Amino acid sequence: MEKEKKEKTFAEKLAGGMFKFLCMIVGILVLAYVVACVITHKALVFDISILSSGTFLIIAVLGGLLAILYILTKMMKSPSDSSNGAKVKTKGGLKKYYDSHWVTAQELKTNPDFKFCYYDNLKNTTNIGILIRAEVVGSRMLVNMYKPIHTLVIGTTGTGKTTQFVNPTIQVFSESKAKPCMVITDPKGELYSFHSNKLKKQGYRVLVFDLKDPFNSTCWNPMTRPYEFNERARNLEKEILVHRGDDPRKYPNLRLASNQYFSEWYEFNGIAFADMNTVKAQINGLRQQLKAEAVEDLKDIAMTLCPVLSKSDPIWESGAKDFIFAVMLAMLEDSENPALGMTKEKFNFYNVAKIANLKDNDPFNPMKSLTDYFAGRDPLSQATQLANQVITNADNTKKSYMGIVSDRLNLFSDLGVCYCTHTNEMDLKTFTDQPTALFIKIPDEKVTRHAIASMFISQLYKILVNSANKNGGELKRTVYYILDEFANMPAIQNFETMITVARSRKIFFLLMLQSYAQLAIKYDEKVAATIQDNCNIHIYIGSNDPDTQKKFSDRCGTITVETESTTTSKGKKDEQSTTTTSVNMDSRPLIYPNELGSLKDELIVSILKQNPIKVKTTPSYKPEAQRIYDMKPAPDEFVIPKMLDEKAIYYDIKERNKKILNPQGQGDQFNSFGGGNTDFGDFDI
User: Fold this and answer.
1) What is the dihedral of CA 133, 137, 139, 145, to 10 degrees?
2) What is the mean pLDDT of residues 400-421?
3) Residue 299 predicted with pLDDT over 80
């Protein structure tokens, strides 16, 4: 049998409060009388004149007011006013200790952390951040945002990640006065259609890298950046400006490298130098740095094209990756000899695939031309060293390596991919000079093309970091990466480092996942944990994964409930029964995992150092949202079909071999480590 305690009625509370009030008033009057006696130097005996003294009246009135305030506060306190550490009684006589609680509607409106505003006021708002609420109430949309921070959004297929988060985020950002830049992965191609018109109306420059329809895409060549680094390294002396007869102190944008200057001084890389020897030292250091960056970029590209996925036997994938890297390094070395014709227009994936897959008609030596290609180079050539680890092996071993190379580069048998990566038509160095939205259309049915998207994301990040470094450490305009189906793309190289340091540069990642497990599968457990830990906002829309539901439930915290249970034991026939009451403290989740599986048009938002938030959202497809958002689909435009001019961009390594190995037609005279002149040193991949 359970003993049930009833919650006190208001009348009972009022009676108890009046009794306490009377007791306090009596105490206050006695205290006031004693103090008045002391001040007037009268003995502690009753004197009616003291009751009319100023001292007595002041103490009595102030004390009475404090007593009234105290009693009213105690009476009016209710369970809904509880916060961390408070406790209230539930209907069943339970006491509930609020270790965690849901943020209230009032807090969302008044707490400045949650950046409340109406959608129609966004055009005057620069104080924006991560969207945590977009709800239509009546005729207006209520918007809440939190300060910019990396964010994870959990939602399995069909739960509404796009309609409840991605679409509202793009609309809110573009409507705001701040107008941040956006990099948006578009797996279905719908995001560009729904938002490009609105973005253009709001003054955005809209770029599209279209891997769904590559022949109609703006072209982007990831190999252009390392090529330009290397070209600049070779031509740094051309950047020296000689000044005669003027004072470097008259140039406010120049840094001074010396305290004393003469009639002739030298300007290089934003620095004023007093003598040429110091300039040369600066050039040598910068040249080495630029070449290292070029090699590092090519290494990252090779690792994205041929990731080492096998944990039990990684040697084959690792060797194939090294060989692809070697081909790109050899092409870069060739670009330093104008006679060979490796121009910027030919430095692309099309030729990487052609070179790596080249087979001669000689059945006894089908890789002769490819072997010759790595000959005639500097003894320190890293291209030769890496390639020889593959091409000098026994035939069967060589075939195993080259089979993986061919498989990984099969992507470039698609001339559409070769077309959209054969040249560079985007100036990403000016990305933040104006509001810019870049859509990366990714075909979900052609997963081999996803590697190109990963490269784009990684290389744009590097360009943005360089821009930030030139601008005092942060970008002119905040950039948000809105990465839908993030874990369906190939792993982005060094992403755990990128996400750790991006925030200080005003770069923020919004990652859409189906579950936490999906992230751990794509990245190893350690990297996945680093990514999760750097996302201080986690937004839950819906997942069927029990582990994800449990983990998110844990993020929301717990409440502790005090329960009372009564047991009665009967004695012998004439003896009285014994009743025992026990009190237990039980902890339970603020929201159970199974509750997370049945949310409808609700988001659960977990923010570091904030109580969790349960908010209603208005999906972008609903009529009340459509009346507010501008998501009219862009009309289909007729585009003149484009084509890849293979003859114009083809690099013939057989012709290269003739020029390097047999310049006078005297037969093959080469050493696998001979000739040439490069300045790349050793860079381990």
Assistant:
1) -20
2) 95
3) yes
Average pLDDT, the chain: 87
E-strand ranges in 223-298 read 241-244, 255-256, 264-268, 271-273
- The residues that bridge with 154 in the sheet, in sequence order, are 513, 540
User: What digits encode the pLDDT tens for the residues 39-78?
Assistant: 766 666 667 777 777 777 787 788 778 877 777 776 554 4
Which helix (H) or strand (E) segment is 604 a member of? strand 602-607
Q: DSSP secondary-structure letter at 631?
A: -
Strand 140-146 relative to strand 130-137, pairing: antiparallel
594 by DSSP, 3-state: which?
helix
Considering only residues 671 and 501, tell me which one the structure prediction assigns the higher pLDDT: 501
365's CB contacts (< 8 A; 6+ apart) are none
**Angstrom distance (rounded) from CA 243 to CA 246:** 7
Provide, for the chain, the percentages of residues in helix, strand and coil under a 3-state DSSP scheme, each rounded to the nearest 5: 45, 15, 40
Q: Give me the pLDDT at residue 579, please.
A: 76
Residues 6+ apart with CB under 8 A from 98: 82, 83, 84, 85, 86, 87, 88, 559
Distance CA(251)–CA(660), nearest Å, equals 48
Q: Which residues contact 644 (CB under 8 A, 6 or more apart)?
A: 350, 415, 418, 419, 422
Name the fold adopted by 130-213+425-556+592-626: Rossmann fold (3.40.50)
DSSP state of 515: -
Identify the CA nearest to 507 among candidates 223, 150, 229, 184.
150
Confidence of residue 671 (pLDDT cuts 50, 70, 90): very low
pLDDT at 38 over 90: no
Q: Other CB atoms closer than 10 Å to residue 482's CB: what's the count?
A: 25
The alpha carbon torsion through 181, 185, 189, 190 (nearest 10 deg) reads -60
- Strands of the 130-137 sheet, one edge to the other: 117-118, 140-146, 130-137
Of how many residues is the chain composed?
Answer: 685
Alpha-carbon distance of 17 to 73, in angstroms, equals: 10
Rounded mean pLDDT, 470-497 = 93
Which pair of structure tokens corresponds to residue 609?
């150092």
CA-nearest of 54, 603, 70, 673 to 377 is 673
**pTM (2 d.p.):** 0.80
Q: Which two tokens stand for residue 57?
A: 């009246």
Instruction: Give φ, ψ of 344 to 5 degrees.
Output: -60, -35
Please list the alpha-helical segments (H only) found in 306-444. 315-334, 349-356, 368-373, 382-391, 395-408, 415-420
Compute CA 543 distance to the chain's CA centroid, rounded to the nearest angstrom. 21
**Strand-strand pairing, 151-155 and 507-513:** parallel
Q: If pLDDT is split at 50, 70 and 90, which confidence band does 665 have?
A: low
Q: Please report, for the chain, the start and end positions of each structural domain, with discontinuous segments joined by +.
A: 10-77, 130-213+425-556+592-626, 224-416+652-661
pLDDT tens track for 208-230: 999 999 999 999 999 999 999 99
Q: Mean pLDDT throughout 643-669?
A: 83
**For residue range 437-457, what is the model confidence (pLDDT) as tens digits?**
999 999 988 888 999 999 999
144-179: b (≥16 Cβ within 10 Å) or e:
bbbebbbbbbbbbeebbbbbbbbbbbbbbbbbbeeb
Q: What is the DSSP letter of 50?
A: G
| Alpha carbons 326 and 314: distance in angstroms, whole number | 18
pLDDT of 681:
44
The residue that leads in pLDDT, 311 or 477, is 477
- Token digits for 194? 């729904």
